Amino acid sequence: MTTTQTAAAEIPTTQDGATQILGTETGADNTQSGTAPTGTTHVGSSARRTRTVTSRDIELFTEISGDRNPLHYDEALAGRSRFGGLVVQGGVTSGLLNALVAEQLPGPGSVFLEVSWHFLAPVRPGDVITAEAVVLAIREDKPVTTLATSVTNQDGVTVLDGTAVVWRDPVVAAA
């Protein structure tokens, strides 16, 4: 990691120039914030991560998943559907929560044990979505955290809502 000097303060950066905030990294089209740095998670801790969704996200998700649903690619057909236009795959929307959990809250070494997500509104290319997680409970006997999770769009509309149970590997968390 390097440090960039500015008039106000030193800003830690990674090799690729991403800015590091609260012990996490953020690239050009991702912004992050939270109430607790990695390792100090407590009930009520929260974190947010924002990203602009692009058509390229649809293509990349198709490459890894094989999801070629015409709702993601055929503008004319999608326009006649109940969605009124192209929508991104649900995995693109929920994927922002994957990054938030793995990078911010609880942090590196975290994996989902259980998720219960409700997709409430479509996300379209060009939307700016913000994932948020709030700690509801932390087990004392295991590194397991229960989170309230949501994703909202630029208009404040909740597009995904639910909960997640996350396990955090103690070896990775301590590294």
Provide structural commentary:
Strands 5-6-8-9-10-7 form a six-stranded antiparallel β-sheet. The chain has a domain of 109 residues: Thiol Ester Dehydrase, Chain A (Roll), CATH 3.10.129. Strand 3 and strand 4 form a beta hairpin. It is an alpha+beta fold. Helices cover 23% and strands 38% of the residues. The radius of gyration is 17 Å and the shape is elongated.
Q: Do you know the CATH architecture of one domain?
A: Roll
- Class derived from helix and strand content: alpha+beta
- Rg of Cα set: 17 Å
Q: What share of residues are in beta strands?
A: 35-45%
First-last Cα distance? 15 Å
Largest sheet: 6 strands, antiparallel
Count of β-strands: 10
Name of the top-level CATH class of one domain = Alpha Beta
Mean model confidence by pLDDT? 84
| String of helices and strands | EEEEEEHHHHEEEEH
Unreliable stretches, pLDDT < 50, 5 or more residues? 1-28
Count of individual helical segments:
5
Question: Strand order, biggest sheet?
Answer: 5-6-8-9-10-7
What fold name stands as the CATH topology of one domain?
Thiol Ester Dehydrase, Chain A
Helix content: 10-25%
Shape from CA axes? elongated
What's the CATH H-level superfamily name of one domain?
Hotdog Thioesterase
